[in-house]
Design a protein that fits this description.
alpha/beta; 2 domains; binds S-adenosyl-L-homocysteine; single chain; 11 helices; Rossmann fold; Helicase, Ruva Protein, domain 3
Length: 277
């Protein structure tokens, strides 16, 4: 198995650190869980998941790897391999015929970095359309720069639109940093393991689609003040007044607003304040 040549096209980097695998398995805290793994690759993580989980569904796009994975794990009756593009796949439909693999409750994966955003969206849903059946936890090995955005606190450099969108839907925490040399071939960037716990936010937005639009606009030009980014979209006098009420400096940038502040802005600056563009 060692000699499986990584393909750039599928963002293949084989993890080789046993220590990192230990951290991932510990963070997933498995017992009687039905796991979804995206991009098993040569199966280094799969091998650890199978004895710890009730079942493992692995989705792998690379046909050649699928042949090898089927050979390696085909005899395990708690393993199901689906060949295809995770982003295109209707997982519920694929699993309909496989009783004990249905409705996986945890995700554990070292994912292809080039499609991290779309994978997160597929796993969590969006502010306006959250996942219908949220996972209990999602442990992912991702690019460090993305990890930093996921667990960023407001007013920090990394706090951006992705932070608001994901933190609206899940608690996010750093599990550990991972170095490029822990992979073959080493990726150009540093990595990190994160754990997301999807949950309903305590005070959801009254109009989630409106919040989604405001976040997109608010972060559209990172250097501008929030009120300049929202010019033409909301009544600026009302925005300034609201920021003052929330004890937020009216000169703030989008990254200075916590998720709660974003919700307050979207709840108080209603669509009737929006000037048709
Ligand atoms: N989990 C393995 C491999 C990580 S590399 C390890 O830790 O070593 C990323 C894996 O995702 C590769 O096996 C690649 O073929 C697979 N992959 C890439 N794009 C995919 C997609 N759209 N759907 C499913 N798997 C994909």
């Amino acid at each position: 198995m060692r000699s499986t040549i990584p393909r750039k096209q599928f963002a293949q980097h084989w993890l080789k650190s046993e220590k990192v695998l230990d951290r991932i398995i510990k963070a997933a805290n498995l017992s009687g869980d039905r796991v979804l793994e995206i991009g098993p690759g040569t199966g280094i993580l799969t091998k650890r998941l199978l004895p710890a989980a009730e079942s493992v569904v692995a989705v792998e796009i690379d046909r050649d790897l699928c042949l090898k994975l089927a050979k390696q794990f085909g005899a395990s009756d708690n393993f199901l391999l689906l060949q295809g593009d995770f982003l295109e796949m209707d997982l519920d439909a694929q699993l309909a015929a496989f009783g004990k693999f249905q409705n996986p409750n945890k995700v554990v994966a070292n994912i292809p970095y080039n499609i991290t955003g779309p994978i997160l969206q597929k796993l969590l849903g969006t502010i306006s359309v959250p996942a219908a059946k949220p996972f209990d936890s999602i442990v992912l090995l991702v690019q460090k720069e993305v990890a930093e955005r996921l667990y960023a606190k407001p007013s920090s450099r990394a706090f951006g639109a992705l932070s608001v969108r994901v933190q609206y839907l899940a608690e996010c925490e750093l599990i550990c940093d991972v170095q490029a040399k822990d992979f073959f071939p080493p990726p150009k960037v540093a990595s990190a393991v994160v754990r997301l716990r999807p949950r309903l936010i305590e005070t959801p937005a009254v109009n989630p689609r409106h919040l989604e639009n405001l976040v997109k606009l608010g972060f559209s030009s990172k250097r501008k003040m929030l009120r300049n980014n929202l010019k033409g979209a909301v009544d600026l006098d009302k925005l300034v007044q609201l920021l003052e009420e929330l004890q937020i400096n009216p000169q703030s940038r989008a990254e200075d607003l916590s998720v709660a502040a974003w919700i307050a802005v979207s709840n108080n600056l209603w669509p009737e304040d929006i000037v048709e563009q």
